[in-house]
Specification:
The structure holds two protein chains of two kinds.
Chain A (H helix, E strand, L loop, with lengths): L12 E8 L5 E2 L3 H5 L10 H8 L3 E2 L13 H14 L10 E6 L9 H9 L5 E6 L4 H14 L5 E8 L8 H4 L2 H6 L4 H7 L5 E8 L9 E10 L8 E3 L1 E4 L2 E4 L6 H6 L5 E3 L1 H20 L10 E4 L3 H14 L9 E2 L2 H4 L6 H11 L8 E8 L4 E9 L1
Parallel strand pairs in A: 4-5, 4-6, 13-14, 13-15
Antiparallel strand pairs in A: 1-7, 1-8, 2-3, 6-7, 8-16, 9-12, 10-11, 15-16
Chain B lengths: L3 H21 L3 H7 L5 H27 L6 H27 L4 H6 L4 H15 L6 H26 L8 H5 L4 H12 L9 H21 L5
Helix pairs in contact in B: 1-7, 1-10, 3-4, 3-6, 6-10, 7-10
The chains are: A alpha/beta, B mainly alpha.
Chain lengths: ~375, ~220
């Protein structure tokens, strides 16, 4: 290690997890009561989107009038408080806060400042991580390194999303090309039926719990493949004659909105092309013996096993890389796809499910189509 | 008991494939297709290139088969079977070319580009070595293209150029049979060839070279 032979590295443990899901679960038939109907008509792609993502229920931080009940930072703070409540620490023990989110509460300043304010604790170090789903792991990794190196002793890490506020009809109805066709395209509509709101959080310490199980972090491995992919999931820019034009370059925000530069969209064909490099990253970790298939007891993946099964089962089998589907744990189908919050919400449920035994391992996986980012994390129940 | 050595080779090959497949998307010709800007002459150029690929392919596989010693007779017959399948393909490519308005003489007499020259020179060199099972790495890459890319390219070309199935049949037809090929590769890897010294590493290295040279021939379209 480059830090020198005398450096003492701490072990780092996830000692508690918390989740905050706003309101009641919303079933598939009620979705449009919350996110509304663009141009006053039911969505053309609703059924196709739900068939593809297989989500049954989700939560929204807006009411049926579109009125916000919580901000993203408030949800993050609630999730952290829930994690503290489940923990052996008190709130004022936290001396480092890392937040992650796809879209925070405003463009400036970063979400971490607002979450700190909402927590109402003394002066602490904070860091803001913004990308898409995998920023959950970049935030976790920063906390892991802060604790490992002894910079801090206790960290809170959150992932929070308030996607539904951007899915209301008004966000789409001003886009000129949609006005012409009278409908919004699949690449915009699919996300409306896929992403939902919520927050999750983890408390990390340099010693394990005294009274309950801890999840020791063995490693977090994050790789960007943006060198070879164009932007796949984009908000705040729009492609015009093969170049991305940022919403700030339109002269005024109304012109940007009319051009569709203020929407969240996803290019599915491009996302499909990312699968080989995600798989390659995984196989590389096997080759480096960071992942030993026989020693994995649970898999928490933000990527669903059914989509994986369709694509590459044979390849994974032959490569000795297939993990039995019985070991996969996911609550995406009941708690919704909450972006950066999902991995925390998944781990929170798994931790409290009674399924974990001492000595077992959990492999976490968070791919991000944004511009192709991929992360893995290995935990051990201690 | 799973064969750890086979699995390691498979993992390495899949990693080589992932790099290759993603870099390929940034080759000007393929990028143009992905941008929805393909022209008929781009497609015809691709067909010319594919024909050279297929014809030379069946020849180097046949030569490789003749370099296999008698103790590996079973593996040799697999190589030979392969050469026969490839042999039929080039007629389909010529038919596609003519169906898009190209002249038969143009596709049959076209000169190889500099990347194609390099690729095939390498293949023949390897195929001449004794027991050149490292060419399985080459086959993994080239067949991977057929199975995982050709179909998507074919669909995109058909759509962008408003073509009929019979004008794009080579690309469309090649996207099938994925599973069979993978099982075949596993079978041959399990047949004892990995006992040859350093063969596991040679297979992966040849896959890397072929991936790089295959990309080169697509980059050098028209550079004869």
């Amino acid at each position: 290690m480059s830090v020198g032979n005398n450096a003492i590295m701490n072990d780092v443990f996830i000692n508690s997890l918390g989740a905050f899901l706003p309101g009641n679960p919303v079933g598939n038939s009620e979705i449009e009561n919350y996110i509304g109907r663009v141009f006053g008509r039911p969505s053309k792609y609703r059924a196709a989107s739900l068939k593809q993502n297989r989500i049954q229920t989700r939560h929204y931080a807006i009411n049926t009038q579109g009125y916000p009940l919580y901000s993203s930072s408030e949800m993050a703070a609630e999730a952290i408080k829930a994690a503290v409540k489940n923990s052996e620490i008190s709130l004022n023990a936290i001396d480092y806060l890392a937040t992650s989110s796809t879209l925070g509460d405003g463009l400036v300043p970063g979400l971490a400042s607002h979450v700190h304010a909402a927590l109402n604790v003394k002066e602490i170090e904070i860091a803001n991580f913004q990308s898409v789903c995998a920023s959950s792991l970049t935030a976790l990794k920063s906390a892991y390194m802060q604790l490992k190196t002894g910079e801090h002793g206790c960290a809170a890490v959150s992932g929070s999303e308030f996607a539904s506020r951007y899915f209301r009809p008004g966000n789409y109805e001003g886009v000129e090309s949609y006005q012409t066709t009278g409908e919004i395209p699949f690449q915009a509509d699919f996300l409306r039926f896929t992403l939902s709101d919520g927050a999750g959080a983890a408390i990390l310490e340099t010693k394990p719990n005294a009274r309950q199980a801890s999840l020791k972090i063995h490693w977090i491995d994050i790789r960007s493949f943006a060198d070879r992919f164009d932007t796949c999931m984009v908000g705040g820019a729009v492609k015009q004659s093969q170049n991305w034009k940022c919403w700030g370059d339109f002269g005024d925000p109304i012109a940007a909105a009319k051009a569709g530069a203020l929407l969240l969209i996803q290019d599915f064909a491009l996302m499909k092309r990312m699968l080989p490099v995600w798989v390659s990253h995984y196989l590389d970790l096997i080759d480096k013996e960071k992942i030993v298939i026989e020693k994995i007891d649970h898999v928490c993946s933000h990527y669903s096993s059914h989509s994986l099964r369709q694509e590459i089962t044979i390849l994974l089998e032959q490569a000795g890389a297939m993990i039995d589907e019985k070991k996969w744990f996911s609550n995406l189908y009941t708690k919704g796809n909450t972006g950066t919050a999902s991995i925390f919400i998944m781990l929170e449920e798994l931790y409290h499910s009674g399924k974990l035994q001492k000595g077992e391992t959990i492999l976490c996986h968070v791919p991000e189509s944004g511009r192709c980012l991929n992360g893995f994390m290995l935990l051990e129940v201690v | 008991m799973p064969n750890v050595k086979i699995q390691a080779v498979m993992r390495s090959l899949i990693k080589v494939w992932a790099d290759f497949a993603t870099e390929l998307d940034n080759v000007p010709l393929i990028n143009k297709l992905l941008r929805g800007k393909f022209r008929l002459e781009d497609y015809q150029e691709l067909l010319i290139n594919q024909r050279q690929q297929v014809i030379e392919g069946s020849r180097w596989i046949a030569r490789a088969a003749s370099s296999v010693s008698s103790e590996y007779a079973d593996q040799r017959s697999l190589f030979l079977k392969h050469a026969v399948t490839e042999h039929r393909d080039y007629k389909m490519i010529e038919a596609n070319y003519v169906a898009t308005g190209g002249k038969f003489e143009d596709i049959t007499q076209a000169e190889k580009n500099i990347g194609t020259e390099a690729l095939h020179a390498f293949m023949y060199q390897r195929a001449t070595e004794p027991n050149p099972f490292d060419l399985l790495g080459a086959m993994f890459i080239i067949e991977g293209l057929g199975q995982k890319k050709a179909g998507a390219w074919g669909e995109a070309i058909k759509k962008q150029l408003s073509l009929q199935n019979e004008q794009v049949s080579f690309l469309l037809y090649h996207s099938t049979n994925d599973e069979d090929h993978m099982r075949q590769l596993e079978t041959i890897l399990a047949s004892g060839i990995l006992d040859i010294e350093r063969m596991d590493r040679k297979i992966v290295k040849t896959a890397k070279v072929v991936a790089r040279l295959y990309q080169l021939q697509l980059e050098e379209m028209g550079n004869v």
